[in-house]
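If I may wish for something, please walk me through the protein I am sending here so I can picture the backbone:
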Amino acid sequence: MRIGYSLVATTFITMILVVSAVAAREVRTWTNYRGSTMEGALVEVDGNFAIVEQPDGKRLRVPLDRLSREDQVYVRQSANPYAGQQSAAGDELTGPLADLLGTKLISSSGKKASTASLAHAEKVGLYFSAHWCPPCRAFTPKLVKAYRELQKEEKPFEVVFVSSDKDKRSMLDYMEEAHMPWLAVPYGSDAVKKLRDKFRVSGIPRLVIVDAEGKVLTPDARGGVTSKGAGAYDRW
């Protein structure tokens, strides 16, 4: 009887621990690259997939490249909380890139994000563009496609949008309409003018590739992406 009781007690305790572990997971709002949302908690990371448990207990296997940039960063940091060059506060990138872009970025939904999301990147594309510019609207889908392919290949690459739109609403609408899966320098930020001046941007679209130290690798990568897509990465 004691053995049976011990087994039952052990099983019950184990169940409590499992339930507690599930309850302890952070239930958050997830956003995909098209802007749709769902509630759920990250259960585990399986390669390029996030296993998300919804409130009803259903588990979804979600490809990372289908998630918003913010959610991809959350998954990476959950898998390796010490990854990246973060400040003591743990939410800001330090170094040349932060000096160049500022410490805060935004998503297409207008949510604030940190430049810490760029910490893993060895190459960063600064994308100068605007919705009112027809050549920009023609090039953006090509850049989005190349970016998604590079993410699937787990290349250490990121893009930051630097808008030349006429107002913040136009900028966010452009990001959402084009399904831009990356972050942007906030509209009206001092960093926008600083970036245009530093890289002598007189026409758009323009894609400047820099390394983690802010050094220019390719002053204008638009042609390479247009002709080679993701294959241009190794030439930068």
Observations:
- The first strand starts at residue 27 and ends at 31.
- Confidence is low (pLDDT under 50) at residues 1-24, 81-90.
- The two ends are 71 Å apart (CA to CA).
- The chain is about 35% helix and 25% strand.
